[in-house]
């Protein structure tokens, strides 16, 4: 028994080490006093962090990524919540078909959607700017995540709250905004957080629809990695690891991570 | 006279139509257009399509090289799913057996990689291993799949009724006997679904082979990118995408085969039990 638990401990330790070591390496090399990323690092400096914070290229990419993510999250949340409400109320026979249609963007590999988008938008010529193409297509990919979390929240929701509100004379709009939506707030927020991360982290569609004007954060990082392997990337990445850890902490505390998966 | 509604609800058909229109115009039509394009000769971006042809498909199916690429893609992701299952199981098992506080911290640690941008994650891996090798790509696939595997496995392992395990211990079985004869069999359906998810996810992986393969390891996804954005043969790219779509649909639906097999097994054992009971009754 003693040996078993020791072996288990060792196995778990190795798995966690495997999961966390790439992140640790990123953090450690950010302090390296060399012009290329080397491991183990040499020297100690904070100049890469200073350069990272003042890097105009990284900052503009970051801002662009956030702008795209926010717009697409709003579209995905509004449409995803609408569909989830319909699924909740409907007893249509075609529900199953619609469900698989709405979930298909995450079942079909993103690269196939990316090829399809690339070929499809040629039809419209210059009607959409690249920024809007990205916002609109990202929203399609995010919608299934919103539908999933909101539906999970709706399953246990009692319809009598809504009925009471409607019977008492509240208008449908008022009922929606003051009764139903507050009840499923958690699901919407969870879906929004999740799809924000998906949009922010998206690097398949962007590699197919990139243009000089829309260099999103993942694309910028990717081009830096392939062109120059400087600790500047590590410094910027370190900031992200800190943000990710903070977000996880908040989500776990407010919503509970298990609800998202 | 207005017919009285039997339920009070404001949710009307528009709640379906508006999102459906969005998905149709921005997802379904693009996909169908791509499938359509794969059957025609491609004559350049913005130009009219050429004549109907099977050539795009024939080119893929007749060339051993493309079959090897397909085999490599499926093989690498299958192996990565196996490794993820082996590595993820003990961690998930432990997560379900520790106290709440440790569970929170360890859960957060195991899914932290998922919340860090994938480029950052792979950048970390790139500075640890030599890129452009099969090993590097495989490591990347395992690294990306493992957090999902752990999260999925905590469900079925957590659902195992502890009193069944305790009964086994009380009857004198040791830890390993209990694990292999009680706990593990109960979690196999969850293990299958986790395995299928990681398998399907990693078959579709694109960023991993691009960054860690460094142009030397060609998988289906990098092949599609090559054809669509460097060589600009959109007809062929569309045909490869359709073939890849079929393969990944087969993979993500093969989990259902297992369910079917389980259902048939259950039906058979029920029938056996019934005949046995009836047989005994006759003997009495």
Explain what the structure shows.
- The complex is a heterodimer of chains A (261) and B (284).
- Chain A is mainly α.
- Chain A has a single domain (2-259), classed as Orthogonal Bundle (MetI-like fold), CATH 1.10.3720.
- Chain A has twelve helices and no strands.
- In chain A, helix 3 packs antiparallel against helix 9 (185-200) and helix 4 packs across helix 6 (130-155).
- Helix content of chain B is 77%, strand content 0%.
- With 284 residues, chain B is mainly α.
- The termini of chain B are far apart.
- Classes of the chains: A mainly alpha (261), B mainly alpha (284).
- At the A-B interface, helix 1, helix 3, helix 4, helix 5 and helix 6 of A face helix 1, helix 3, helix 4, helix 5 and helix 6 of B.
Write the layout of secondary structure elements.
The complex is a heterodimer of chains A (261) and B (284).
Chain A: H1 2-29, H2 47-54, H3 56-89, H4 95-107, H5 110-120, H6 130-155, H7 160-167, H8 172-183, H9 185-200, H10 205-208, H11 217-227, H12 231-254
Helix pairs in contact in A: 1-12, 2-12, 3-6, 3-9, 3-11, 4-6, 6-9, 7-8
Chain B: H1 14-37, H2 55-61, H3 64-95, H4 100-115, H5 118-126, H6 134-159, H7 162-170, H8 175-203, H9 207-213, H10 220-230, H11 234-283
Helix pairs in contact in B: 2-11, 3-6, 3-8, 4-6, 5-6, 5-9, 6-8, 6-9, 7-8, 8-11, 10-11
**Main beta sheet of chain B:** none
Q: What would you say the CATH architecture of chain B is?
A: Orthogonal Bundle
Strand content of chain A: under 5%
The secondary-structure element order of chain B is HHHHHHHHHHH
The coarse overall form of chain A would be globular
What is the string of helix and strand elements of chain A? HHHHHHHHHHHH
């Amino acid at each position: 028994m003693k040996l078993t638990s020791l072996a288990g401990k060792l196995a778990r330790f190795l798995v966690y080490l495997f999961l966390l070591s790439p992140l640790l390496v990123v953090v450690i090399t950010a302090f390296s006093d060399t012009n290329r990323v080397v491991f183990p690092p040499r020297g100690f400096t904070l100049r890469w962090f200073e350069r990272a914070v003042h890097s105009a290229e990284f900052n503009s990419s970051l801002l662009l990524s956030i702008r795209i993510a926010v717009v697409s999250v709003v579209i995905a949340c509004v449409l995803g919540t609408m569909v989830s409400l319909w699924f909740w109320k409907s007893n249509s026979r075609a529900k199953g078909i619609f469900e698989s249609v709405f979930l298909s963007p995450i079942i079909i590999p993103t690269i196939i959607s990316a090829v399809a988008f690339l070929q499809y938008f040629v039809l419209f010529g210059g009607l959409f700017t690249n920024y809007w193409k990205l916002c609109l297509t990202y929203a399609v990919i995010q919608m299934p995540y919103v539908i999933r979390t909101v539906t999970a929240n709706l399953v246990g929701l009692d319809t009598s709250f809504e009925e009471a509100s409607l019977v008492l004379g509240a208008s449908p709009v008022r009922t929606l905004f003051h009764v139903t939506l507050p009840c499923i707030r958690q699901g919407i927020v969870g879906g929004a957080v999740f799809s924000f991360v998906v949009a922010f982290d998206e690097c398949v569609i962007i590699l197919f629809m990139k243009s000089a004007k829309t260099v999103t954060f993942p694309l910028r990082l990717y081009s830096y990695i392939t062109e120059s392997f400087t600790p500047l990337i590590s410094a910027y990445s370190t900031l992200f690891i800190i943000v990710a850890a903070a977000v996880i902490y908040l989500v776990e505390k407010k919503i509970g991570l298990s609800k998202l998966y | 006279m207005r017919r009285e509604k039997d339920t009070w609800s404001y949710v009307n058909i528009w709640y379906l139509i508006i999102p459906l229109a969005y998905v149709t115009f921005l997802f379904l039509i693009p996909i169908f257009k791509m499938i359509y394009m794969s059957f025609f000769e491609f004559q350049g971006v913005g130009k009219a399509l050429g004549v109907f042809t099977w050539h795009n498909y024939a080119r893929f199916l007749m060339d051993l090289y493309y079959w090897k690429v397909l085999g490599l893609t499926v093989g690498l992701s299958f192996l990565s799913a196996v490794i993820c299952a082996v590595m993820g199981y003990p961690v998930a098992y432990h997560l379900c057996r520790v106290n709440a506080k440790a569970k929170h911290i360890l859960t957060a640690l195991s899914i932290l990689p998922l919340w860090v941008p994938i480029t950052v994650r792979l950048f970390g891996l790139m500075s640890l291993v030599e890129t452009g090798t099969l090993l590097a790509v495989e490591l990347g696939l395992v690294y990306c799949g493992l957090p999902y595997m752990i999260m999925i496995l905590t469900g079925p392992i957590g659902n195992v009724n502890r009193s069944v395990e305790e009964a086994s211990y009380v009857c004198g079985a040791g830890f390993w006997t209990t694990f292999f004869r009680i706990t593990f069999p109960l979690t196999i359906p969850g293990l299958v679904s986790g395995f299928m998810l990681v398998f399907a996810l990693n078959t579709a992986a694109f960023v991993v082979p691009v960054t860690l393969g460094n142009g030397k390891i060609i998988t289906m996804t990098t092949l599609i990118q090559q054809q669509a954005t460097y060589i600009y043969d959109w007809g062929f790219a569309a045909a490869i995408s359709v073939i890849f779509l079929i393969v990944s649909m087969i993979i993500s639906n093969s989990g259902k085969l297992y369910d079917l097999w389980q259902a048939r097994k259950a039906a058979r054992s029920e029938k056996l039990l019934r005949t046995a009971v009836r047989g005994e009754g006759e003997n009495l």
